[in-house]
Specification:
The protein is of the alpha/beta class. The chain has two domains: about 10-160, Rossmann fold (3-Layer(aba) Sandwich), CATH 3.40.50.10940; about 165-480, no CATH class. It contains 16 helices and 18 strands. Helix 5 packs antiparallel against helix 12, helix 5 packs across helix 16 and helix 8 packs across helix 9 (about 240-255). This is L-fucose isomerase C-terminal domain-containing protein. It comes from [Clostridium] citroniae WAL-17108.
Length: about 500
């Protein structure tokens, strides 16, 4: 996967000057050793310059981790820790920070060997709040070397997403299609998150596409598409135009990324796209997303943003789907009931025309867009990648700005069932516990649009922490609450 940051974490140990410095030194060494024994240690850096006891030490440590190329920071309380200096570390570090603390090792060494980091973590969190400093603190942030190593590993995808957002540009083409106001949201929150946005006309894109006619690279891209599609290449006559379009987007990214390192695209795909370009862009969108460059449909800017977050977390292809249609009763009775532990209301179909990577489809075929072909000549609606989505664990989620520029989000973990959809497009039968209540009291009640991002795996824990870190109020992060947990708007007598 391309288009995402590599995280290098600097580990800086801190010590309160009235505690033995050796506690922090030895515990830091044990932590680093535990991490390297359990995980790939190439992504961590042990700051050897000093144990931070003062503001001067803090500056020295910051200079050291910066020189080492670290873009994420772990502040490790080997003992009680200096609440001012340690929080200044996070304040002046240009990147995401995490605070963890050392547990005591032995009941036989609680005099000179007692560090009181359990207490020090309270002061650290209090000072972080006083200074309005963002920092990630795990659910239970005090542990042995091995436990703290696990906490750092859980921090890696969180850090990767936060670093990515700080250098992301979303490139959009055109306004939302008519009757798609649901995908429209103010861009102010993008700037608040550190994300740049470049909005273009689809006419600009059309001009760039025409300039790529006859591009010498087109035959090689066509060969790559043919190899990917295999026997699913049902529309070979359209591949040359699709290759021309793919090169147009890739060149646009290179020419327009500016000072930003990472890019996502919110693309236009209808209503005039088909008649002017002569195809639909779904397959090309799927190919770019499969490489790590998310491309959302219908100029869904916050959909593209959500996809990028999931890509950083999972280091894998994601997709953007309509929360589309209910599962018919006869299909449920025949293929789901008694075989899977879900009620009919806990299932639905996630669908889009053909934007899901071939890596995430059980089978795929290049086809025409059936819905569009009802009103247009079939030959201009070719370019969808159709197939049932691969069964397995998924996380359905979205980050959204409300009309009055407030961040809001949801996360729900579930699975794609190994059940044939009997339908068209890139589509799957999704099952999420208590989906019916979640649909009513989060998706509808909180006015979310019909597009949801899908990460292939259970990543809810990391995504939840990312949403908190970037400033989403926890009251505005919806999730599929289990039975017995009432939503605020749920009728207790229902």
């Amino acid at each position: 996967m391309i288009n995402m940051p590599e995280v290098k974490i600097g580990i800086v140990a801190v010590s309160r000057d009235c505690f033995p410095e050796s506690l922090s030194v030895n515990r830091r060494k044990a932590l680093v050793e535990a991490y390297k024994n359990k995980y790939d240690g190439a992504n961590i850096y042990e700051c050897p310059v000093c144990i931070v006891e003062s503001e001067i030490h803090m500056v020295q440590a910051l200079e050291d981790v910066k020189k080492a190329g670290c873009n994420a920071l772990v502040v490790y309380l080997g003992n009680f820790g200096p609440e001012i200096s340690e929080t200044l570390l996070a304040k002046h570090f240009d990147g995401p920070s995490m605070f963890i603390a050392a547990a005591e090792e032995s009941g036989n060494n609680l005099v000179q060997g007692r560090g009181d980091a359990y207490c020090g973590m309270l002061n650290a969190s209090y000072n972080l709040k006083l200074r309005n400093i963002k920092a990630y603190i795990p659910e239970y942030p005090v542990g042995t070397a091995e436990e703290c190593a696990d906490m750092i590993e859980e921090f890696v995808p969180i850090a990767r997403a936060v670093v990515g957002l700080s250098s992301l540009k979303i490139i959009s083409f055109g306004p939302r299609p008519l009757n798609f106001l649901a995908c429209n949201a103010p861009i102010k929150q993008l700037y608040n998150l550190g994300v740049e946005i470049e909005e273009n006309s689809e006419l600009d894109l059309f001009e760039a596409f025409n300039r790529h006619a006859g591009d010498k690279r087109i035959p090689d891209v066509v060969k790559d598409m043919e190899a990917e599609l295999g026997t699913g290449n049902k529309k070979p006559e359209i591949l040359e135009k699709l290759a021309q379009y793919e090169l147009t987007l890739l060149d646009w990214i290179d020419e327009h990324r500016g000072y930003r390192k990472y890019v996502a695209i919110a693309g236009k795909c209808w209503p005039a796209f088909q008649t002017q370009f002569g195809f639909v862009p779904c397959y090309v969108n799927s190919r770019l997303t499969g490489r790590g460059i998310p491309v959302s449909c219908e100029v869904d800017i916050y959909g593209a943003l959500s996809e990028f977050i999931g890509t950083c977390v999972s280091q894998d292809a994601v997709t953007l789907l309509d929360i589309n249609n209910s599962v018919p009763a006869d299909l449920y009775e025949e293929d789901i009931k008694g075989k899977f532990d879900y009620t009919q209301k806990e299932t639905f179909m996630g669908f889009h025309c053909g934007n899901t990577s071939s890596k995430k489809l059980s089978f795929c075929e290049m086809k025409y867009q059936l819905i569009m072909a009802r009103a247009l000549p079939e030959e201009v609606t070719q370019g969808t990648l159709e197939g049932d989505i691969t069964p397995g664990d998924i996380t359905f989620y979205r980050l959204q700005s409300t009309a009055d520029s407030q961040l809001r989000a949801y996360i729900a973990q579930g699975e794609v069932l190994p059940v044939a959809t009997r339908s068209f497009g890139a589509i799957g039968i999704f099952a999420i516990p208590e989906m019916g209540r979640f649909y009513r009291h989060v998706l509808i009640e909180k006015n979310f649009p019909h597009h949801g991002a899908v990460a292939f795996g259970h990543y809810g824990k990391a995504i939840y922490e990312i949403f908190k870190y970037i400033g989403v109020d926890v009251e505005e992060i919806g999730f599929n609450q289990l039975k017995g947990m009432l939503y605020k708007t749920e009728n207790p007598f229902a």
